[in-house]
Design a protein that fits this description.
With 231 residues, this protein is an alpha/beta fold. It has a single domain, classed as Uracil-DNA Glycosylase, subunit E (3-Layer(aba) Sandwich), CATH 3.40.470. 43% of the residues lie in helices and 16% in strands. The protein has a 6-stranded mixed β-sheet, with helices on both faces. A hairpin with a 5-residue loop joins strand 5 and strand 6. Helix 5 crosses helix 6. The longest helix is centred in the middle third of the chain and has 18 residues.
Length: 231
């Protein structure tokens, strides 16, 4: 089912570079209506790069909320994607199966890259568009206002803390190791401009999640408690 004109109008500026009509960004990936997703899963960068042909912007926008279409368009790229991307989809499937919850998969910088190793070079060579990728994440977060944000990996955790330091209430400043924070439950709370609160988790990269997340048992228990309390 095609997306509405209103939703496409909202998403379009999150796709296109400032000085061109090329699709440079992947603002999010989800199944269905993103306004019904209570959880953000956040990487540091939007990896891998899914190339969008000219005049296919609306189809790409639709694929961001239509997983069947996304698979039809990018099956070979998905198969060749890094483990973190695949693990994120496995976590998404587990969440849907165990808790009937959908999530929004996004990145602190939504500029699409083949690999995170390209970030420093891209930042120098395409500075304005790269920095726009940081702004888009904030716009996406403020638009959908998730109740839970899960930062995966040390890079996402450290970058998020710096970028949103003035909005974060960190529960225990002394604990900074990701694996310990993963075990402890939400490490911080953030408040949106309208006063709504969001719980912030951190985990290791979802590249380690596997089919059932057996290495993430304590994290899954902590997440379940928050989901149950926020019903």
């Amino acid at each position: 089912m095609p997306i509405s004109k209103g939703f496409y109008k909202k998403v379009y500026p999150w796709l296109i570079g400032e000085d061109s009509k090329d699709v440079l960004y992947r603002p999010f990936l989800t199944k269905g209506n993103p306004y019904k997703s209570r959880i953000f899963l956040v990487s540091s960068h939007a990896v891998p790069l899914f190339k969008v042909e000219e005049r296919s912007e609306q189809t790409f926008a639709e694929s961001l909320v239509n997983r069947e279409l996304f698979h039809d368009l990018y099956l070979s790229e998905i198969k060749g994607a890094p483990r973190e991307f695949k693990g994120s989809l496995q976590f998404e499937n587990w969440l849907e199966k165990q808790h009937r919850e959908s999530l929004i998969y996004t990145a602190l910088n939504t500029y699409q890259l083949e690999s995170a190793d390209e970030a420093k070079i891209t930042k120098k060579e395409d500075t304005a568009n790269f920095e726009r990728g940081n702004v888009i994440f904030k716009e996406v977060m403020d638009e959908f206002q998730p109740e839970i944000i899960i930062l995966q990996g040390t890079a996402a955790y450290e970058q998020f803390k710096v970028r949103y330091a003035d909005r974060l209430t960190i529960f225990n400043e002394e604990v900074t190791k990701v694996q310990l924070l993963e075990q402890a439950g939400p490490f911080a709370e953030m408040v949106y401009e309208d006063g709504k609160k969001v719980s912030i988790f951190v985990t290791r990269s979802m590249s380690y999640f596997g089919a059932d997340g057996s290495k993430f048992e304590q994290f899954k228990e902590n997440l379940a408690k928050i989901l149950e309390n926020n019903v």
